[in-house]
Amino acid sequence: MTLSVALLVLVVLVSLFLVLEPMRADAAADPDAAERSRLEAERDRLYGELAALEDETRRPDLERRAALTLRALDALPPAPRIGGRVRPFALAGAGLAVALTVAGGLTFVPRWQLASLSAGEAEDVRNVLALPELRRRAEASGNQAGYLAWGKAAFDSGQYDQAVQAYGSALKLDARQPEALRRLGILLLTRPDSSGQPAKPEEARQAFLLIRTAAQLAPSEPESQLLLGFALARFGQDRNALAALERYRTLDPKGRDADEMITSLRARQNEDDPGLRVYAASCASCHGPNGAGGALGPSLRASTLTRAALRSVIVNGKGVMPAYPDLKSAELNALLELLERWQRERP
């Protein structure tokens, strides 16, 4: 931002110099300036005395002297005009100044406008502005990198029709490109068709296969797990969806795109699973919302305790772990079933 302001100031200063310099240079020196100034002062003094004259006997002499002064002024060569003839250099300077000012406005004003946006909004604007050139390069070169660059800019700025076209072209060149697979898949799965209808069941399954394939090809890329979680939730596979979204948050601890979906999935699971209801009420505050460990308690998913040992710790407590002797038999058994299921899911 500082560099942009400095460059704009420089453009303005150069423009002013190019406009004013020819005008300054056109003002030629007046060799009779001193005499002209003296005679003009004398003329003004005599006019002043005539205007305030009270003794009429002095009028003839004053008028004679004023006439002589005017005659002397008329005898001097005309004074050079300030800013006289406009030379070709002046015209060229003015034209260049206008061009620089326009270029500065087109270059720097958009940057100032972008500075008022958030980082994400500014990036979207830049992506939209870059789309025509990225598309031209991709179609001219016909290579995968060009199509991916065009697709990424279109997807990130919400120009989804172009993203579908770009990623589809990239997959024709390489059918195992994870970014193109998952992004094309999520677009086909979630966006209505040209008539406003959602994806048909067969189309939705094909879209899901694209997303799942991308996650298999690039399991450590956060977006692979994020979009896989969304797709699994779309097909009602809540447990697998939650696992994928929790893996996304592990891969990208700062990522917040899955928070609402995770909350929704957990709420649905708690309604359907009595073990999760007990866990959420009694255990999650120490062992974390998904049993992977929290501020106080260790990971229950990594536990190797037997069912009997788990029952003993829950009922009697151990160390800083409080006892829960009042759990009903059905609640305790449901919680033990959940903990054992987590142990079986451990890689």
Automatic annotation (TrEMBL):
Pfam families to which the protein is assigned, alphabetical: Cytochrome_CBB3, TPR_11
InterPro entries per UniProt: Cyt_c-like_dom, Cyt_c-like_dom_sf, Cytochrome_c550/c551-like, TPR-like_helical_dom_sf, TPR_rpt
Cytochrome c domain residues: 270-343
Alphabetized Gene3D superfamilies for the sequence: Cytochrome c-like domain, Tetratricopeptide repeat domain
Residues in TPR repeats: 144-177
The keyword Transport is assigned to this record: yes
This protein's record includes keyword ATP-binding: no
Key words of the record: Electron transport, Heme, Iron, Metal-binding, TPR repeat, Transport
Domain of life: Bacteria
Classification via PANTHER family: CYTOCHROME C-553-LIKE, MENAQUINOL-CYTOCHROME C REDUCTASE CYTOCHROME B_C SUBUNIT
Name used for this protein in its record: C-type cytochrome
Organism: Deinococcus multiflagellatus
